[in-house]
Amino acid sequence: MSTSVGAAGPAPQGTGPAKSPGRSGPSPRRGPLAPGGRTRRLLVATALGLLALSIARVMADEPVLTSSGTMTAVLGLSLPIALAGLAGLVSERAGVVNIGLEGMMILGTWGAGYGGYQYGVWGAFLGALLAGTFGGLLHAVATVSFGVDHIVSGVAINLLAAGAVRFLSELLYKGVPGGGPTQSPTVRGGVSTFDLPVLSSGPDLLGRAEDTGLPVVADLAGILRGFTTDLTVFAVLGLALFPFFAFFLWRTALGLRWRAAGENPYAAQSLGVDVYRMKYLAVLTSGALSGLGGLFIVLFSGLYKEGQTGGRGFIGLAAMIFGNWRPGGVVGGSLLFGFSDAVRLRSSGSGGVLALFLFAAILLAALAVRQLARGHRLHGAALAGIATAAALTWSGLDSLPNEVTTMTPYIVTLLVLVISSQNLRMPTYDGVVYRRGEDH
């Protein structure tokens, strides 16, 4: 039997060519940790984004766009979504679609609320981890062992989780001071915070630079100050998971087998990979990461409340797609949603949200020029039209209805998905039911 993944069996129709697990993964030029062109493009994109944000802040006279307080809120609002996106990524890289992220996150919030009420913040951490992993186990048993359609299983988990947490709350919190059918008592104790050494400890150099209001300088200082102050050990742990999984999935033998299970499980099987084990490991890890996302929501509010996930599991899926099934892209998509939500929450009126339209117009105009320069006239013209509409919205309106302001983060998510849908490449066998020993 050939040791080539592509020779072990044809890929599903329309999914593209299969990859070989016998190789060391994508070429260095395309790997998520590869130096060179990808790093330069990331740095250029970051610099241009900062410049666009600074221009929007100055033109709209809205310091909230880059204030350190906004950036601290961005970190808190983005982490649950980013962890949900990472949870979807690790599952789908092994070939299991997981739209049950919302349900697993719901279980995580309940577990964090119960563990925090009983044992404090570390109890909340353990409760969220275990509850989310249990949701992942249900999904793995249904999809991997019994071959249930992945979408059906995910929808079922979302529905079951919502009913289970209500039942458990009525059973355990009824009559408890501060608790009830829809919420837990408050988490015991509190989470200690700290500032990052050098950047935000000692003399407040970043604060002074932020107060100058100078274009770019003040904006960069506000961003750095917000991301390096009032950190928690859980936030640092959550952030560290992204480089960890980027290294693990693309630079280790186990990560190679993990991805092979999603690219061509039949070829991986022919090479001795236990595909069932890889898929189980991936889905259980996905559930644990979703539960940790729920932990951050509970720690942010201080207790569990029914419905407090607010669809962040689904938004995490959108961030995963925007990020093209790569950890760095997941972080970028999550930050976009968290940023728009933080600006909405911290603005005294709708001025900050309107400034987001100006920021979007500048970015979209730059993208339109780039597409036109590459000869993509239709795509460039569409981006130019959206940029014009966003600019007219900012210049022509003094305020926005509350309903529109509330929907802004979700509108941003949809817009980003539309723009990023041109160059997406999901794992080849993502969502395909696998049966050991079958000749596919």
Fill in the keyword field for this structure.
single chain, 440 residues, mainly alpha, 16 helices, 66% helix, disordered N terminus
Describe the structure.
The protein is built from 16 helices and no strands. With 440 residues, the protein is mainly alpha-helical. The protein folds into 2 domains: 36-62 and 347-425, no CATH class; 70-194 and 213-312, no CATH class. Helix 6 (205-211) crosses helix 7 (217-228), helix 9 packs across helix 11 (275-301) and helix 14 packs antiparallel against helix 15. The longest helix has 27 residues, at 275-301. It is globular. The two termini are 14 Å apart. Mean pLDDT is 86; it is low at 1-35.
- Radius of gyration from the alpha-carbon trace, in angstroms: 23 Å
Roughly how much helix do the residues carry, as a percent range?
55-70%
Order of helices and strands: HHHHHHHHHHHHHHHH
The average pLDDT is: 86
Largest sheet: none
Number of domains: 2
Note poorly predicted spans.
1-35
> Proportion of β residues?
under 5%
Give the helix tally. Answer: 16
Which structural class should the secondary elements be placed in?
A: mainly alpha
Q: What's the total number of strands?
A: 0
**Shape annotation:** globular
